[in-house]
Amino acid sequence: MVRIICIFAVLLLLCLFNGVPFSYSAEGEEVFNAKCGSCHGTIGEAPSFSPVKYASTQWERFFERNKHARKRDISNEISTSDVALVKDYLITHAADSDLPIAAGLR
Q1: Residue 58 resides in a domain
Q2: Which of 21, 27, 20 is nearest to 85 (CA)?
Q3: 3-state secondary structure 26-86
Q4: Count of domains forming the chain
Q5: Contact between 94 and 54 (Cβ < 8 Å)
Q6: DSSP secondary structure letters along 5-32
Q7: How far apart are CA 60 and CA 35, in angstroms?
Q8: Does 106 map to a domain?
């Protein structure tokens, strides 16, 4: 009987959290706003940058190819762990994600 209850509880938890990404996207958003916002933040009323600007595969390629370094090398301004958090945030909220989000909107 205990085994059946445990299995039921596990299945219930899987159903509750199905599709909910376990990620650092909230922390990544904070890092993005703090470290990237000066260049990619809101200008006046309109957001100048948004995670939905690209699809998740485009964000993957952007980070794999280190495309930011082509315009401005920020490696001495942001740690690799912070870059990973920002990458996760952008991919989690990309245009084709389950949780797309435009900058400044909730």
Answers
A1: yes
A2: 27
A3: HHHHHHHHHHHHHHHCEECCEECCCHHHCCHHHHHHHHHCCCHHHHCCCCCCCCHHHHHHH
A4: 1
A5: yes
A6: HHHHHHHHHHHHTTT---SSHHHHHHHI
A7: 20
A8: yes
Each residue's pLDDT tens digit, 54-88: 999 999 999 999 988 888 888 888 999 999 999 99
Residue range 3-46, pLDDT digits in tens = 777 576 665 555 545 544 445 568 988 888 888 877 876 655 55
CB 94 within 8 A of CB 52: yes
Residue 7 resides in a domain: no
- 40, 50 contact by CB (below 8 A): no
Kindly state whether residue 9 falls inside one of the protein's structural domains.
Answer: no
Q: Which residues contact 41 (CB under 8 A, 6 or more apart)?
A: 33, 47, 48, 49, 103
Domain hosting 96: range is: 23-106
Residue 95 is classified by DSSP as T
11 or 49, which is more confident?
A: 49
